[in-house]
Amino acid sequence: MTRKSTDDTVEFEAISRRHMLAATGTIGAAGIAGCSGNGNGGGNGNGNGGNGNGGNGNGGTGTTNQVDNQDISIRYIPHGAPGQDPFWSAQSEGWQMAVDQLGVDAAYQGPDSSANFTQQVSNVETAIDSGADAIAVTLPDPDLFQDALQRAAEEGVYVIVTNVTEQSFLESGEQSMPYHGYVGQNEAMVGSTLASNTLPLIEEELGSQPSRAVILNHDPGHSALSMRQDGIEQVLEEQGISNDWIEVPGGDPSGVISRLASFRSSNPDTSLVFTLGPTAGNPAIDYISNEGLEGEMFHAGCDISQSQADAINEGYNLAAVIQQPALQAYQAAHYLTTQVNSGILTPTHTPTGPTFVDASNVDAVQQQIEKFGVA
After folding, report:
1. How far apart are CA 10 and CA 3, in angstroms?
2. Residues in CB range of 309: below 8 A, 6 or more apart
3. Rounded-to-integer distance, Cα 10 and Cα 358, Å
4. Cα(133)–Cα(159) distance, rounded to whole angstroms?
5. Whole-prediction pTM value?
6. CA distance linking residue 38 with residue 25, whole number of Å
7. 373, 86 in Cβ contact below 8 A?
């Protein structure tokens, strides 16, 4: 790998582990044959591959011009696991859909508990040690990943980032560590997109802007959630709307409801609740419904579950900004595989959001919600 640094950017050029093996002849005859595309194995190239029917005389019924992906090893190492949050269940399903199509050696390796970023870094190191060709990783706390991603680059392991990345990358395209592309939304835009589009909707409902809003943050140490919260607060402050934020326990719906109820008891003029993900969003709309606060208190959040879609149709959940988590993981698997087997470079940024959803277009994401649980 060659690497040039300036004060503002990091540039690098890495030779992949697979390319190094091929150059030294250690990839094995079977692996080379699987990529040969010389017409053998699919007929003899003279119309004899399946009697020439469907092969166009070129052995098209066999493995000609196809890459055997079974010896390609890819890993997805996010900061969440299925069961911790509907979001990660959707990611896991999207990843599995892709790897089933691709036929690669793949694994989804989330942490044992939520917000365990140290274990996530350890999972990256383990993937490198195990000989993975390519890795997708989320960066909830980018500074923690500097050494692991630098090691991956030095050892020729191709890395892309999904879901959450460095704020500097989102704002100016600058990277402090080597990775080859980002699949996900621009988190710096999420909060402002949500708040600025929600305020006109609540004004229609109340006849005026809300006097007070509260933001529920289920993981204050998460960089993406911090960016979302900052964007919401900026819009609210520009509009002169009093606002507060409270930490709520991720993964504990009753705890979310308890803290929201306590806050509203002390601040009865609160008419708008913002949440930063379904972990807090689902309990928040349950609170509004269970307490009979429809028409008095409204919700808007990030990502959308079935219960939140239903509440949009019922009128007290005003909106959501979505990022299509299943697509993030699905696209990551395809990017990793096509790079390893064909050298195709990942685009610098593949945006999967933010997309604003309200009553006017919620039906457009219904199929995705039904399939993956969240959009």
Report:
1. 8
2. 362, 365, 366, 369
3. 40
4. 9
5. 0.80
6. 19
7. yes
Spatial separation of the C-alpha atoms in residues 181 and 162, rounded to whole Å:
8
pLDDT digits 0-9 by tens, 273-285: 999 999 999 999 9
Q: Is 303 left (phi over 0), alpha (psi -120 to 50) or beta?
A: left
Determine contact, residues 244/260, Cβ cutoff 8 Å: no
pLDDT at 44: 35
The two structure tokens encoding residue 234: 């900026």
Residues of the chain whose pLDDT is less than 50?
Answer: 1-15, 19-66
The CA-atom distances, in angstroms, between 29 and each of 41, 94, 338 are: 15, 33, 21
Residue-wise burial string across 58-90, b where 16 or more C-beta atoms lie within 10 A, e elsewhere: bbbbbbbeebebebbbbbbbbbbbbebbbbbbb
CB 312 within 8 A of CB 38: no
Cβ atoms of residues 193 and 354 within 8 Å = yes
C-beta of residue 175 within 8 angstroms of C-beta of residue 168: yes
Beta strand pairing status for 73-77 and 134-137? parallel
